Amino acid sequence: MQQSHPVEPWYVARMSSTEPEPPAWIKKLTENFRSIRLPGGVVGKSTRAMLAVIGVWAVIAWQLSDNLTRDAMLLIAGAIVTGAFIWWVKSSQGFAARNPAQAMLDGAEFLEWQRFEAQAKGILKVTDSPLISDPAKPTPAIEHNPTGPDSDG
After folding, report:
1. Is residue 107 left, alpha or beta, with left meaning phi > 0 and alpha meaning psi from -120 to 50?
2. Whole-structure pTM over 0.70, yes or no?
């Protein structure tokens, strides 16, 4: 009796194929993009999202085949991702219009900006930060004063 071999899915065939290495210019391009640091805030997040949408459409274009049903599903998925991206960018641009400082900066940068604004307006006084103790030295012992303000007697 002859054994039947199961048909492998399309992705297994593609993963196991011996495709040639990418051209040198693509390798160099990806190495150059690794050193790019995107800014924070709305601009940086929108840029990351745009790169992701471009990546999704590149994968969709690469995966197009003669199967019209599969291609239609890929195009619908791409349209959904693109629609979500457009909605997100519009809503974040609205947020940026209402809150420009928060949209421009992230996290600690925003807190530092608020502190700077408060100091410029005279609301917050600039004080020297306490010195940080040397971790190599032993911690001084805390002494209890029985006649101090915390005592019961």
Report:
1. left
2. no
